[in-house]
Amino acid sequence: MPYGAIILTTVLVALLFVVVFLVIENNSPLITEEDLRENILAAKQPYILPVSKIDIPLRDWKIGEPDINAKAAIIHDLKNTRILYDKNLAGSLPIASITKIVSAMVVLEKMDLNEVFVVPPEALNVTGENGAELFLRESLTVNNLLRLMLIQSNNDAAYTLALGSGFDFVGEMNALVGRLNMINTGFYDPAGFDDRGFSTVSDLINLVEYSLEHDYLWQIMGTKNTTIVSEEGIIHNITNTNKLLGQNLEIVGGKTGYTDVALENILTVFGHGKTSFAIIVLGSNQRFLDTQELYDWVLKAYEL
Hints:
Layout lengths: L2 H24 L6 H12 L27 E6 L4 E6 L11 H12 L5 E3 L20 E3 H10 L3 H10 L4 H11 L21 H11 L3 H7 L3 E5 L5 E5 L11 E9 L3 E10 L2 E10 L2 H15 L3
Antiparallel strand pairs: 1-2, 1-9, 3-4, 5-6, 7-8, 8-9
């Protein structure tokens, strides 16, 4: 008889004597040898921990890559914190008025929304392209300037906020992105007109995730049309620069940007069922078409 079989038989016999002794002592029903064998075999089976269901969408590789014009782009699953698609992930590019999201974060975290600022001459028509968007010496609350900056992408409002802040506004912008570990990002003005300002789609995801803690910011960026009235009663009827608002009902909000050097840029957050994702497009000649292409693609490629 093999040595292993001898050992097993010896163990079984010893266990049988123990069980018989216990049964006699306690007047319990006698366990059979067959029961004992089954118990030993069961004990030898590995214990498998139960696996909890993880709701992570899987890629359908039969769906090809999206066809976009942008120099860089990303689709980021905000619920599961993972990239669903990227192009030129770490490429440093000018981001134009997407910069204003960082400006808005500085305003929300360091300034009083009820304070009234007077529009100074230094804030008017800084870009020299579209004419003044506000009136000289017009008085507006910080809150209304914030809304003008984010919805209309108003450069005069951005500079009025920076000049009236009383601190190194651009310095605070760069300090903020530093804290967010946006190591490939830097700014030179509050509006994004200076094309020396740069970022990457990867860094901008850090900004999106942090900024989503500020519900009011995204409430503003999800507004399609509104009316803003200055302290003097001057009426500003403004429309969001994001033309996808109203066309795609799943848009939470976003920010556009454009300069001749940066080309067309857009950052958008979508809510879809139980998930949400950000789509960022930089350096495109057709930002809205690219965003819609990426949106349609991700729903098919991941069956969202």
